[in-house]
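Tokens for chain A. Residues wanted.
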């Protein structure tokens, strides 16, 4: 069923509705001046950080990424997980390393897959990217966005909200009132803008 209440029962409808839904969700409405959106945002990536982020991956980075991955967490094609690559590195290491370090630019839709369907090689590349970003991520995230800071949990935000609401409900003195606002934002991280 779409947002207008139209029900799709045919194969054609079941194929076209998801396509149009995701086309809308992931397409741009066209922003005339994107510079205005970034006027108040200070640059946090320095030139030297950018050089480090854009340099070619090394064999050592790939080995560190593989070593830091949980051996049984992500199974690959045919059920072979990270543990296979870790255990038989002396046999498959050269081929795995050459693939992960020399990943070509994807050129067709068949080269893109949801993360749950990605094999171990893609997950090693993703881990290499994560490892590289970890060194500079601290400079890019505001201290108020605690969920992204290592060692902090989103649960802390729930505790803070509970304490604030408790304080507001018990406050009896003073002329100024208190006010809390809860906003529901539907998957803002899925939208282009």
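Reply:
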């Amino acid at each position: 069923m779409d947002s207008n209440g139209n029900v799709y029962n045919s194969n054609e409808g079941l194929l076209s509705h998801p396509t149009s839904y995701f086309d809308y969700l992931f397409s741009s409405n066209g922003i005339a001046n994107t510079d205005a959106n970034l006027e108040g945002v200070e640059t946090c990536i320095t030139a030297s950080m950018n050089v480090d982020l854009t340099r070619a991956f090394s064999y050592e980075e790939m080995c560190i990424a593989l070593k830091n991955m949980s051996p049984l967490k992500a199974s690959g094609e045919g059920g072979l997980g990270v543990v296979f690559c870790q255990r038989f590195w002396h046999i498959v290491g050269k081929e795995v390393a050459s693939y992960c370090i020399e990943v070509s630019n994807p050129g067709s839709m068949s080269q893109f897959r949801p993360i749950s369907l990605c094999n171990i090689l893609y997950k090693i590349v993703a881990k290499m990217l994560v490892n590289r970003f970890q060194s500079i991520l601290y400079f890019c995230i505001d201290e108020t966005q605690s969920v992204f800071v290592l060692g902090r949990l989103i649960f802390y935000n729930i505790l803070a909200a509970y304490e604030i609401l408790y304080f507001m409900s018990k406050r009896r003195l003073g002329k100024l009132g208190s006010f809390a606002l809860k906003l529901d934002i539907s998957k803002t991280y899925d939208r282009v803008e």
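The two ends are 25 Å apart (CA to CA). The chain has seven helices and no strands.
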